[in-house]
Every structure is written in C-alpha cells, then in structure tokens.
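tool_call: predict_structure(chain=1)
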Amino acid sequence: MSEEAKKRKREVVGEVVSTKMDKTIVVKVKRRFPHPQFRKTVTSFKKYYAHDENNDAGIGDTVRLAESRPLSRLKRWTLVKVESRNPDAVSA
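tool_result:
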C-alpha cells in the first residue's frame, strides 16, 4: 500500500439534521445497496456527529465530512465543505 493511500481520510456526503450544539453538527448519511439475498435495493441511514469550527452549516445543507481523530465522546468527523445550501432555510 502506498504512502498516499495510507494518509487519505475517508469522506462521506450527507444532509445536516441538527445544528443545536456549538461547533457540532449532526449529519445523516444515506447508503444504498442491494440486499444480499433478495437483490432489492435497500436504503440505510446513519448519523454522524461532526466538528464545524465556524458554525457554517445549516439544517438541510448538503455537506462533505472527513474522518479525523476523536474530538469528543461522539465526534470523529470534521466538516470539509458545504456542498450546497438549503434554499428553504430562514436567513438570520
């Protein structure tokens, strides 16, 4: 395995479902795969707690997360960038 492959962090894309905590967002990531036995497409969801240093993300935004060192009991991901903003969000 090359040095570059070892250092690359895993990234996921998902939708922000909560921004109630300071510098923390909760992101729901959708994964689609065929069922092992029945071959029907199954959708599963998983929530990740991520570090958002500048509180950039809002509810409904699509964001990209990267794996990081443990930052707290639940946070193991950091916000890389906001892919798209939620057009229905209320501007403060």
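agent: Residues 21 and 55 are 9 Å apart (CA to CA). Proceeding to next step.
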